[in-house]
Amino acid sequence: MKCAIITIGDEILIGQVVDTNAVWISQQLNNLGIRVEEMVTISDHPVQISNTLDRYLGLYQLLIMTGGLGPTRDDLTKQTLSDYFETRLVTHPEVLENITRFFKERGRTMIDSNIRQADVPESCRVLMNNHGTAPGMWFERKGTILISLPGVPYEMEGLMKDHVLPEMQRRVTVPHIVHKTIMTQGVPESYLAAMLRDWEASLPECVKLAYLPRPGIVRLRLTVVDKCAADAEQLLEVIIGKLLVIIPKHIFGFDDIRLEESLGNLLREKGMTLSTAESCTGGNIAHLITSVPGSSFYYTGSVIAYENRIKTEVLNVDQSIIDSRGVVSREVVEQMAKGVKELFGTDASISTSGIAGPDGGTKEKPVGTTWICVAYGQRNYSGKYQFGGSRERIIEQATYTAMQLMRRLILDLL
To answer: Domains in the chain, please, with CATH?
Structure first.
């Protein structure tokens, strides 16, 4: 089954809002074996909506449209669909009852615009929204299923889970597809591809590999389709087993696990505690670590030692070392890691010091130069890295590198 996703909203076209709906929908459909071939964003204008439907009806078996179903005057999708399918808006009793209950439970008074959300095109199949007030709508024409959903992400996701995905599973015979994602850190995409050239060449024909890079991390997605999918789990286990021998230091997990989650799981498993001392990363490591539920079991705190005075007075970094070696140096990050570990009484620590830019670089230490130290017990490792890109990108790369180095030190992979 081939599908297109249509997102409606001027706020997306002008860059005010990022379209996360299309990405989420695509992931869910892909898991069912439904191929998304196009994603398009259009303005909330009747002519634009109608023209888009003219292009896509009959071309794709499934169209999923999000947005334009709110209670305000700029939400025109419902009326446009009613006109397009040559029908009329009628009040749907069950939807009205649902909206009334929604407002009553929240102690709010309904106004006319809320009541009008119970009006739907007479010819559509209504998808009840148990997560908000705007119902979904299901149309069929020219061999195409068109599903219109609200743009509010949690409402859209609820309708997809409650109605669309179960119905697609019942209606559609799809090829069996199995995905496995391997998460790596520390090797750029091109270098990783070179390292894996022979392994990739040995993959069976029915196994497809995709490299999915972002700053500091590359995901390897393996997809098994059709003729060998019945043995997919066993096949992938063998393939990944070979990969673990080739790049054991760079794999931190599977299936889109975040690096901070992987590090947290390891710390918890080992019964360890961690603290951080950050200069150039400005607390970003601490932010990511504490974004994981339960991180209080292993993470104690951080010192953001942005000013040199904090490095010397709080972390006991020797001023003479700063004067002689510079603040971006091996000696400074090693003393920072030792200082914060002693200050918080933790088993392990991470420290960073670098030049995130865009200013501050020199010939000897250009923008992106970063020293990172990880310490565990009596052992420590410190390394110099040269990251590139914007300030945000440098901070992100330094953050992920530091967390992966901590994992590698704990696992004795440095």
So the answer is: 2-171 (3.40.980.10), 177-254 (3.30.70.2860), 259-410 (3.90.950.20)
